[in-house]
Please model this.
Amino acid sequence: GAGVSQSPRYKVAKRGQDVALRCDPISGHVSLFWYQQALGQGPEFLTYFQNEAQLDKSGLPSDRFFAERPEGSVSTLKIQRTQQEDSAVYLCASSLVPAIAIQYFGAGTRLSVL
Amino acid sequence: EDKVVQSPLSLVVHEGDTVTLNCSYEVTNFRSLLWYKQEKKAPTFLFMLTSSGIEKKSGRLSSILDKKELFSILNITATQTGDSAVYLCAVNAGGTSYGKLTFGQGTILTVHP
Model:
């Protein structure tokens, strides 16, 4: 596609509910990143995929967070048993190749946990 | 731990003013520094800087990197209300083979008519 597409744009969840956030990267981009952005803060790294391989998940805050990219294209970030502190904007970014390439961001999914 | 600090955190100016946004960093294995503009949507790429002293320019925006003093500035001349946004600075660094970004907190720029 022309840009990185994320869905849904907004998600309201009750505490304890599971959610799934989708990212469709720019076609042909090898690298895919997930970031979490709390209100008034810069984005923070969650996890990285190179094609279908998850090479780094060091930023995932707990084992309730799980991400996958099974065919090396679309990625899903899943949060189980959501808690209020999970409320944030979840941004996805893709880049053509690893290392130095520019990352292009989607508009994000704003998650509110009540 | 890699660290990126932006200043000021917020700035209010009038149309036509010139602004300078600052970004300092402490990281290991620096590769590049990137500037993004974030409105109520996707952060949009502005500049990527890898070499010291070479100014990058796009219209009224320009940016430069100082790798000795570990900082970058983003200049916006003749500001317009459409420049109102959060400006994010990010550094690509670390021992990995891919470009994990460490972001600053952002500078909120408000341009009044």
About this structure: The interface with chain B takes residues 3-4, 31, 33, 35, 40-45, 48, 50, 55-56, 91, 93, 95, 98-108 of chain A (CB under 8 Å).
